[in-house]
Specification:
Length: 268
């Protein structure tokens, strides 16, 4: 879409990508299922202005010390046997001058990222890369729909915090239970509904879609950001564009993970 033709068109920015070696300076238990890892190091030039930007986090094989390597035309070059696994995370907060970055990890119990986050301790190191780019969604929509599971909370929280006073937001967040609520800062007018799994496995059921189906939407043009388990995101996108009159250009639905599949992410 042409930005000049549509003043509401989201804008893409590219960033120079490099890897950074950061040190864990603190760990905060946000909820029983979510842990904030505070990191510090060389953050010069880091930029993640989009609320749903993501970085790659690198998890090295046992016995291999985390290290940043130059990124060439064929990507990052690692010695055989030292190739790390990569997972996507949202820069929840960062300060380039102070050299700090906070990442919020869901402790879902499986996989290199969740396993690392569960044991992370002060003094350990972590390698990150990116973001490669940012998506800046204008703040001139009549209202905003935000929806997702716990993995989306960092991106949704950033959006709620950056939207100005007077912006109207409907938000639906799926968590396991009441103990997973998090405080959200911001000046926007946010109507937030939680839906609960109550012990059911994450990525099962259709709680977010079911809730959205029952919602009466305000009038005017909206932008929807939906993120979380891939089937949920896909179903919500289909509902919004096929049954609720959303402009497909104004719906971003991201599969942040996929039930039963490691290292899965998709855009719908
Ligand atoms: C753009 C983007 C931003 C993201 N931001 C964040 C973020 O800020 N915080 C965050 O916690 N996650 C975030 N995610 C999701 C995260 O990257 C995935 O959950 C990832 O799969 C975790 O890697 P892992 O090594 O823990 O598990 P994997 O090795 O990828 O998966 C192992 C198993 O765990 C399952 N699994 C993966 N994630 C979950 C989950 N959340 N709940 C239950 N089961 C799961 C998989 O289906 C698989 O069966 C983001 C994803 C994307 C694409």
């Amino acid at each position: 879409m042409d930005v000049l033709a549509d003043p509401r068109a989201p804008q893409r920015l590219r960033h120079e990508t490099r890897m950074r070696l950061l040190e864990v300076t603190g760990v905060t238990t946000l909820t029983p299922r979510m842990r904030r890892i505070h990191l510090k190091g060389d953050m010069a030039g880091f930029a993640a202005p989009g609320h749903a930007d993501h970085i790659k986090v690198f998890f090295f094989p046992p016995g291999v010390a985390p290290r940043a390597v130059p990124i060439g035309p064929d990507g990052a070059q690692f010695a055989p046997g030292e190739r790390p696994q990569m997972r996507d995370y949202t820069p929840r907060a960062y300060d380039v001058d102070k050299g700090t970055l906070d990442l919020d990890f869901v402790l879902h119990g499986d996989g290199p990222a969740a396993t690392w986050a569960a044991q992370a301790a002060i003094g350990q190191t972590l390698v990150i890369g990116g973001p490669r780019g940012s998506l800046i969604v204008p703040m001139n929509f009549d209202w905003y729909l935000l929806a997702g599971d716990e993995t989306a909370i960092p991106a949704l929280a950033r959006r709620m915090a950056e939207l100005p006073a007077g912006a109207r937001v409907l938000a639906v967040i799926e968590v396991d239970n009441l103990s997973e609520h998090q405080p959200f800062a911001g000046a926007a007018d946010v109507a937030l509904t939680y839906v609960y799994r109550n012990g059911a496995a994450a990525g099962t059921g259709s709680r977010i879609l079911d809730r959205i189906r029952t919602m009466r939407f305000p009038t005017g043009t909206a932008y929807a950001y939906v993120a979380g388990e891939a089937a949920m995101s896909r179903a919500v996108r289909a509902h919004l564009t096929e049954a609720r009159g959303f402009n497909p250009d104004y719906v971003r639905a991201a599969g942040y993970w996929q039930r039963g599949m490691a290292d899965a992410q998709q855009d719908h």
